[in-house]
Amino acid sequence: MSMQSAILPHAGARTLNADALHADARRETFGLLALLSPGLLLVFAVIIVPIGWLFWLSLFDETGSLSASNYARFFQQPSYIKTFLTTFKVAFAVTGACVVLGYPLAYMLSQLPRRAASICLILVILPFWTSVLVRTYAWLVILQRKGLINSWLIDLGVISQPLPLANNFAGVIIGMTHIMLPFLVLPLYASMKTIDIDCLRAGMNLGASPAATFRQIFFPLSLPGLASGVVIVFVLCLGFFVTPALMGGGKVIMWAMRIEQTTSLYSNWGAGAALGVVLLAVTLALLGLFQWLLGARATGVWSSR
Amino acid sequence: MQRFSVRNCVTTNCRGSVQALPQLRPAMNDPESREMLLSIAPTALPIGISGIEKRFGGVSVLRDLSLDVAAGEFLTLLGPSGSGKTTLLMILAGFVRANAGSIKVGGEEIIAMPPHRRNIGMVFQNYALFPHMNVFHNIAFPLKQRRVSTAETAERVEKALDLVQLKGLGERRVDQLSGGQRQRVALARAIVFEPRIVLMDEPLSALDKSLREHMQIELRNLHRRLGMTTVYVTHDQREAITMSDRIAVMNAGCIEQIDRPEVLYAAPKTRFVAGFIGDSNFIPVESRNGSVWYEDRKIRMTSAVPAAGCHLMVVRPEKLRLVADAQPAGSVNVIPATVGDVIYQGDSFACYATLRDGRQVTLRDYCRSDVLARLPGPGEPVNLGIDAEDVVLVAAD
After folding, report:
1. Contact between chains at A199 and B120 (C-beta distance less than 8 A)
2. Predicted structure pTM score
3. For the domain bounded by B47-266, which CATH number is listed?
4. How far apart are CA A82 and CA A65, in angstroms?
5. Which of B208, B211, B241 has the alpha carbon at shortest distance from B316?
6. What is the pLDDT of residues B43-99, one digit of tens each?
7. Counting beta carbons within 10 angstroms of the beta carbon of residue A15, is it exposed (0 to 12), middle (13 to 18) or buried (19 or more)?
8. What Rg, from alpha-carbon coordinates, does chain B have?
9. In chain B, which residues fall in CATH 2.40.50.100?
10. Within the 283-302 window of chain A, which residues sit less than 8 Å (CB to CB) from chain B?
11. Phi, psi angle pair for A57, to nearest 5°
12. Which residues make up the CATH 3.40.50.300 domain(s) of chain B?
């Protein structure tokens, strides 16, 4: 024994309590798994199971037999393609409007003194505390043919015919932009607040005019916040239902409305499920694309352009 | 815009001397380094600051502050937080607007000029490197604003990187750099466009102690090499003494004293300066009948006797020493005291003693064998000797 340990001085050290340590490590792993299990179960029950079910449902046609007809329909029926395009058109337009309105707003908020900024921020968040339905109806009252805006403009003599502001594409964009704006402004504001004021000072100190400093330093540094706001708004737009249903006047059919029609009007659960699966897949693909683009931004060196 | 004439130097073999920067002392006789010195610094300009007033709300931060910085000088603004030193630097850079006053750089008034036209390089406390650009683009930024050609930009950035010993790190991301490297990038960025003057706002405060001391020497040598007029802000008196040609000690919005470090240390004019730079013992003395008295002992001194009244005698701990004789001899003043504690500190020891009036004084000396042999114990009466030429008096508030 003593000779063996003399020949292999490390053998004893390696096996000393190795089994006990291994058992302890295993116990710890099991313990952690046990602690995780309620959360894992919940995720499984409320996310994995319903989505799997949705996917399963989408594989059956109206007669209850297994087929791919629910998916084939997307390519056969032009109305589906039109709905798909409308959905993206609305999502792009609303996201664009949110960026155009939200960026200056977030910039102003980030430059205000602390107290004024927190008051203005409450004004931005305030709509969150009101029902989407209520706000949409309020927009209808304001924008419809005999609504506030049209009657004022006619009374002032600016126009003679009421502008078509509600029950069409423009109405949907206006209503949805209002609802989506905070989702863009909040992450953008948060990222603008983290921009070091000394970086902007350094920019000016090194010879960049205020405009050049904004363009070359502030704007690139606010891009991560802008990107996350854009992703949130865009994804929310893709699945939005209430506002387009009310403000579109039946002329703007978005994806979620099509799902609702298919399931509640035609009771075709298979087709509705297929619509849901496609929306989910497209959303995931978009998120993946954003992640890929942003990931490259975050880890790679940004070009000077 | 003057050309960055370091370019001429590219063909000569100056690379070796650049890389030997930390050890390099100014060697004017060495033709190579003289060429460096002459070719990089054609733009050292004097700064004339006069009558600067700044109030924030009702609070006066700077009061009628005037200060002249010679061309090529390394001047440090030293003071506690709230003394207005950073505000003055911000006014120089143009980020804070003064209420009144004049700043002339090389004779040109810049007080009302927007920051991006001032052509002043600044190193920020937290470096303020642009996180979305790599090292090269950070340093190239001021050149890009000045529409310097791509080829020349590359050359000058390369030269600047070489100067701060970051050769080959141009493609690094800012977050891949250590604190000391970021510091150097910030420095390179502040000097690459040959600014008229360079400002530094506590640039070393974020570094750990040993790196800070290394960078102090490096900055000092870089300044000697390039000779740019530099205004440096710090609250660290040791840093100020190590690096500066002159130090302006600031307190409550005014300059208390401005002088070379050795003069400030040896002959502080006010109690604040004496207390802020180095350790000091303050011993109350009185001036009457044309001489200065500590209790009943006449103080021998080489400087002029001040006006009658109460004063404080400033004595540095290392200027005090233990003397055997209780009676003053020659030009040595002797003050009796009782030892409170003796603390051994390796290279030196500190002796805390109490004067007869109860005042605490500190004595510091090196641990030479002859001193150690006669080291007093706690409670022992001792005689503290002060040479007449070391006696400095300041007003007693």
Report:
1. no
2. 0.77
3. 3.40.50.300
4. 28
5. B241
6. 688 999 999 999 998 889 999 999 999 999 999 999 998 899 999 999 999 999 999
7. exposed
8. 25
9. 279-395
10. 301-302
11. -60, -40
12. 47-266
Instruction: Report, at the CATH architecture level, how domain B279-395 is classified.
Output: Beta Barrel (2.40)
pLDDT score at A302 = 41
Q: Domains for chain A: give ranges and CATH numbers.
A: 1-35 (no CATH), 73-294 (1.10.3720.10)
B314-359 pLDDT, tens per residue? 999 999 888 887 777 778 888 989 999 988 888 888 999 999 888 8
- Which chain A residues contact residue B130 at CB under 8 A? 199, 202-203, 217, 221
Q: Which helix (H) or strand (E) holds B286?
A: strand B281-288
Is B322:B383 a contact under the CB 8 Å cutoff?
yes
Report residue B272 CA to chain centroid gap: 16
Mean pLDDT of A219-236: 90
Q: Confirm whether the ipTM is greater than 0.85.
A: no
Is A213 an 8 Å CB contact of chain B? yes
- Residues with Cβ within 8 Å of B100's Cβ and at least 6 positions away in sequence, in order, are B51, B52, B53
Q: Does A20 touch chain B (CB under 8 A)?
A: no
Instruction: State which amino acid sits at residue B94.
Output: G
Q: Which residues of B touch A205 (CB under 8 A)?
A: 93-95, 115-116, 118, 120-122
CB nearest A208 (choices: B122, B131, B145): B145
Asked whether the beta carbons of B268 and B247 are under 8 A apart, the reply is no
By Cβ distance, the residue of A209, A217, A302 closest to B116 is: A209
What pLDDT does B2 receive? 39
Does A205 contact B93 at a Cβ distance shorter than 8 Å? yes
Distance of CA B128 to the CA centre of its chain: 22
